[in-house]
């Protein structure tokens, strides 16, 4: 999208008033390289058209091209200037961009109805032209009869919707913060669990070394260190009275019994 032409329209609007400004607006609407109009609407002389009886319909039409869709134009066609085929096609292409923000997959049947296209050929020509103008990017699927949109031109946002968008952003941010907190909690739990296992393994290894150095030292371990037949770590079977608990902790007891 070339913004140079839009800048030129805004520059000319500084000195254009009345019918001259209305004609400038119609020229911007007809342009095949200008697809956003927010800056033009903000120009004081263009804004003044809304209060001029003979020019307020032109200002309303500019709002439709900036924020609205082809259906919006049809609903108010009786109070708006008539459009040429090129202007209608441009508004239809901007309408596709708006629909793309709601769904990346646009069925041909929906587009044919919304855009008043006579047949699929006319619809596909309209879409291909929009792609060539960088209004949208995507792929036509003739077999599945839909348009898959991968990118679309951002439309202007009316002032009345800014608060709604801000609230949606705050809601998204709140959800993102909550998700980050949950992930951080899981990471902390996993790290603590891992560190506990390392500490337990180190403790067991240390006591095992002590047992090797002291032949009179006896080591008993938890069931996790036993084989399927219940043999201890050193092949000693455990009695029924042996205590058990989870984890690889080893218990060392000095055997002070007199050997026979």
Summarize the structure.
It is built from 10 helices and 5 strands; from the N terminus they run αααααααβααββαββ. It has 260 residues and is mainly α. A hairpin with a 4-residue loop joins strand 2 and strand 3.
Sequence-ordered SSE layout with sheet pairings:
Layout: H1 4-13, H2 18-30, H3 38-42, H4 44-47, H5 56-67, H6 70-75, H7 85-100, E1 105-107, H8 108-115, H9 120-132, E2 136-141, E3 146-152, H10 159-213, E4 217-221, E5 250-254
Antiparallel strand pairs: 1-3, 2-3, 4-5
Helix pairs in contact: 1-2, 2-5
Query: Biggest β-sheet, characterized?
Result: 3 strands, antiparallel
Mean pLDDT: 87
Class of secondary structure makeup: mainly alpha
Oligomer: single chain
Beta fraction of the residues? Answer: 5-15%
What is the N-to-C order of secondary-structure elements (H for helix, E for strand)? HHHHHHHEHHEEHEE
The number of strands is 5
Kindly, what is the distance between the CA atoms of the first and last residues, rounded to a whole number of angstroms?
98 Å
List the strand order in the largest sheet. Answer: 1-3-2
Number of helices: 10
Query: In percent, how helical is the residue content?
Result: 40-55%
Rg over CA atoms, rounded to whole Å, is: 37 Å
Given as residue ranges, the uncertain stretches (5+ residues, pLDDT < 50) are 223-260
- Principal-axis shape equals elongated
């Amino acid at each position: 999208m070339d913004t140079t032409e839009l800048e030129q329209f805004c520059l000319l609007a500084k000195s254009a008033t009345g019918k001259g400004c209305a004609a400038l607006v119609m020229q911007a609407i007809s342009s095949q390289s200008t697809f956003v109009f927010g800056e033009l609407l903000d120009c004081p002389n263009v804004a003044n058209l809304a209060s001029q009886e003979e020019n307020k319909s032109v200002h309303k039409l500019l709002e439709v091209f900036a924020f609205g869709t082809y259906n919006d134009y049809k609903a108010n066609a009786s109070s708006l200037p008539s459009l040429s085929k090129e202007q209608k096609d441009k508004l239809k292409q901007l309408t596709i961009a708006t629909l793309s923000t709601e769904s990346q997959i646009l069925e041909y049947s929906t587009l044919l109805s919304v855009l008043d296209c006579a047949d699929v050929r006319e619809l596909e020509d309209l879409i291909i032209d929009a792609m060539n103008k960088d209004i949208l990017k995507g792929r036509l699927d003739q077999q599945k009869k839909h348009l898959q949109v991968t990118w679309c031109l951002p439309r202007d946002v009316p002032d009345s919707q800014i608060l709604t968008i801000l609230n949606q952003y705050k809601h998204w941010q709140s959800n993102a913060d909550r998700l980050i907190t949950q992930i951080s909690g899981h990471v902390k739990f996993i790290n603590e669990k891992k560190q506990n296992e390392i500490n337990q393994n180190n403790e067991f290894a240390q006591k095992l070394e002590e047992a090797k150095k002291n032949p009179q030292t006896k080591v008993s371990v938890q069931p996790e260190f036993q084989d399927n037949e219940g043999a201890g770590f050193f092949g000693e079977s455990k009695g029924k009275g042996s205590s058990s608990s989870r984890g690889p902790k080893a218990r060392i007891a000095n055997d002070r019994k007199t050997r026979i």
